[in-house]
Design a protein that fits this description.
Blueprint (H helix, E strand, L loop, with lengths): L8 E5 L6 H12 L5 E9 H9 L7 H16 L8 E8 L1 H12 L3 E5 L10 H9 L3 E5 L9 E5 L4 H17 L2 E8 L21 H19 L1 H4 L4 E7 L3 H12 L3 E5 L13 H9 L3 E5 L1
C-alpha cells in the first residue's frame, strides 16, 4: 500500500440517514484497489441549526454534537471489514459548500454521497449541489444500491473527458466483476435539422445514412483502441444508439437493460450556473433512476 501521506483520498458524505451505511461501504470498497484512504465527513447544517434556534429551541454546543456524531460513526463502522484507513470529521456549515472546500483542501479523488431524495425519483438538493460545486468526480448512490454494481453504462462522445470516464468505469467494473456497456448516442442520420432528407447522388454505391453510421462505428473502434489497456479483462460491449435527445435515450436504455450505474463525463464545476455540468449530463443525472458517477 502507498504511504498514507501520498495515497489518494476518497471523501464520503455521512448524514446518518439509512443510506449512510451504503455510502461508507462503497467508499471503503472503492478505496481498496487504489490503496486510498477514506475521509468520512458529517456536516451540521447551519441553516437547520438557525431554524431550530429561531423557533425558540436551544442547540447543543458543537463539541457535544461532535462527540455524539463520533459515537454514531463508530457504531456505523463497527463490524465492517475495513482494509483501508478511515478518518472521521465533523464540520458545521452548508453541506455542499463544506464538502466542496474539503474536497479542494485534501485534493480528493472522488466524493461518494447518497442521492437522498424522499420521492426516490430525483436527486436531493445537497447531492445536486455537490455535482455542480465539488471540484472532483462525484459518485451519487441511490439508497437501494447496497451491493456491488452488476451492470455499468458509460457514456462517450469520444472526447478526452469521456475517455477518462471510461477509465473510471472500467476500474469499477473490474473490481466489482460487472458488465460494462460503452454507449454513444448519434444524431439520427438521414435528415437535417429541418427534417429534410439527406442523400448522396443517385449513382452513389452507399447511402448517406450508411456512411454516417460507418463513421460513428469507426470513432467507436478508435475509442476502444485508445482505452484498450483500461478495458483489459473487463466484460464489455460497445453500443451505438440514435436520438436527437441523448439524455432521454440513455435514460430509457438504462431502464431497459436494468443497469445500476451510469458513468459520464461532465464539463466542470461552478457554484453559479448548472449548465457548466453540460445539458445532457445534467438531465441524465436528474432523470436516471440509478446511481450516477460524474467524472470531471
Amino acid at each position: 500500500m502507498n504511504d498514507m501521506n501520498n495515497s489518494p483520498t476518497i471523501l464520503a458524505g455521512i448524514d446518518f440517514s439509512d443510506s449512510s451505511a451504503i455510502v461508507l461501504r462503497h467508499a471503503i470498497h472503492a478505496a481498496e484497489p487504489l490503496g486510498a484512504k477514506v475521509v468520512a465527513v458529517h456536516v451540521l447544517d447551519k441553516g437547520l441549526r438557525e431554524h431550530r434556534e429561531a423557533s425558540g429551541l436551544g442547540n447543543p454546543g458543537f463539541e457535544v454534537i461532535k462527540e455524539q456524531a463520533e459515537e454514531r460513526f463508530a457504531a456505523l463502522l463497527a463490524g465492517k471489514e475495513c482494509s483501508v484507513p478511515v478518518q472521521f470529521l465533523v464540520k458545521i456549515g452548508k453541506p455542499a459548500e463544506e464538502l466542496r472546500r474539503i474536497a479542494a483542501d485534501l485534493d480528493v479523488s472522488f466524493l461518494v454521497i447518497s442521492a437522498n431524495d424522499l420521492t426516490k425519483k430525483r436527486l436531493g438538493s445537497i447531492a445536486a449541489r455537490c455535482l455542480r460545486m465539488v471540484p472532483c468526480d462525484v459518485l451519487v448512490l441511490r439508497d437501494w444500491q447496497g451491493g456491488d454494481f452488476g451492470k455499468i453504462v458509460v457514456c462517450t462522445d469520444f472526447s478526452k473527458t469521456a475517455d477518462r470516464a471510461i477509465e473510471r468505469a472500467a476500474s469499477l467494473a473490474q473490481h466489482c466483476g460487472a458488465h460494462l456497456e460503452i454507449v454513444n448516442v448519434m444524431y439520427p442520420p438521414g435528415r437535417d435539422s429541418w427534417g429534410k432528407v439527406l442523400e448522396h447522388a443517385a449513382d452513389s454505391p452507399t447511402t448517406y445514412e450508411d456512411d454516417c453510421k460507418a463513421e460513428v462505428r469507426g470513432m467507436m473502434d478508435r475509442c476502444l483502441g485508445r482505452n484498450k489497456a483500461a478495458l483489459e479483462g473487463v466484460r464489455h460491449e460497445a453500443v451505438v444508439l440514435e436520438s436527437q435527445l441523448p439524455a432521454v435515450e440513455i435514460t430509457g436504455h438504462v431502464r431497459s437493460i436494468a443497469a445500476d450505474l451510469v458513468v459520464m463525463g461532465t464539463h466542470g464545476h461552478s457554484p453559479i450556473a448548472s449548465h457548466f455540468i453540460g445539458t445532457n449530463a445534467e438531465r441524465l443525472i436528474q432523470d436516471a433512476p440509478v446511481s450516477v458517477f460524474a467524472v470531471r
